[in-house]
UniProtKB/TrEMBL annotation:
Coiled coil: none
Native species: Aerosakkonema funiforme FACHB-1375
Subcellular location: Cell membrane; Membrane
The keyword Ribonucleoprotein belongs to this UniProt entry's keyword annotation: no
Record domain ABC transmembrane type-2: where: 29-257
GO CC, alphabetical: ATP-binding cassette (ABC) transporter complex
InterPro entries: ABC2_TM (IPR013525), ABC2_TM_bact-type (IPR047817), ABC_2_transport (IPR000412), Nod_factor_ABC_transporter (IPR051784)
Stated name of the protein: Transport permease protein
Family under the similarity heading: Belongs to the ABC-2 integral membrane protein family.
């Protein structure tokens, strides 16, 4: 194994391409159920609650409920797919399949293997976010231009939650322990960060706590067509900062497991 941390684009691509080729063999089983999840939420909650709620107030504007939750469902697709692949997928490759160790016997450095795994997890999240967005465009709940211009946000959100997943894979000692952050952090985020209802309806303290969680800025920024957030630049920088911090922490957790 190589201790050096030099990095090349070809090395990162090699790792990413290896994971993509493995994924292609079982893409139908691995791809469709996770992709359908946010779409099912969109259809179930959208069509189920719209007759009851009709229109809601968001940022001082009255909007149709289906139009309100559409960006939130894209964010849900991003968080679940990128985090799950980063946490479960990387944990399995690191501790059971020993894929990381095998790749490090090839002419690849730790930095290249780490970044390749990270980008692959982010790719899974971005694919699900885009597919969810395409379905919403076809149903008329999201504009095509809005989806196109939202691609950088989807990619940034995917990188953020993929880094959180990698950190989880590095910290947890058994695969069952990964359920702890999922139920204590990921599921609460998905419910209170403004995906299904405006955070302003929450109690003030809970609303403020939710605003600092990583999913909130992604949901708010994806709703830029409805209303540009007042602190959009701060929210964007917050996402970038969290991505950097979680990536650094994941690196610090995984590296010692391979080079003791």
């Amino acid at each position: 194994m190589k201790f050096k941390s030099s990095i090349t684009l070809w090395g990162i691509y090699s790792v990413w391409h290896r994971h993509a080729k493995v994924y292609q063999k079982t893409w139908l089983v691995n791809c469709l159920p996770p992709m359908l999840e946010p779409i099912v939420y969109l259809l179930a909650f959208g069509y189920g609650l719209t007759p009851l709620l009709g229109e809601i107030t968001y940022a001082g504007k009255t909007v149709d409920y289906m139009t309100f939750i559409a960006p939130g469902m894209i964010a849900i697709g991003v968080i679940f797919q990128s985090y799950s692949e980063g946490a479960f997928g990387s944990f399995v490759r690191l501790n059971f399949q020993k894929t990381w160790q095998a790749l490090l016997t090839a002419p690849l450095t730790f930095a290249e293997v780490f970044c390749g795994d990270w980008l692959w997890a982010a790719t899974r999240g971005a694919i699900t976010g885009v597919v969810t967005g395409i379905v919403e465009v076809l149903l008329g709940f999201f504009s095509g231009w809005n989806l196109l211009l939202s691609l950088p946000l989807i990619c940034l959100g995917s990188l953020l939650f993929a880094a959180m997943g990698l950190l989880t894979a590095g910290v947890m000692r058994t695969i069952d322990h990964i359920n702890v952050p999922i139920y204590l952090l990921i599921v609460p985020m998905y419910t209170i960060c403004g995906t299904f209802f405006p955070r302003e309806t929450l109690p003030p303290l809970l609303s403020k706590v939710a605003s600092f969680l990583p999913l909130s800025p992604l949901v708010d920024l994806l709703r830029w067509e409805l209303a540009i957030p007042q602190y959009w630049l701060i929210q964007l920088l917050w996402m970038v900062l969290l991505t950097g911090v979680f990536t650094w922490m994941a690196w610090r957790q995984i590296y010692p497991q391979l080079f003791r």
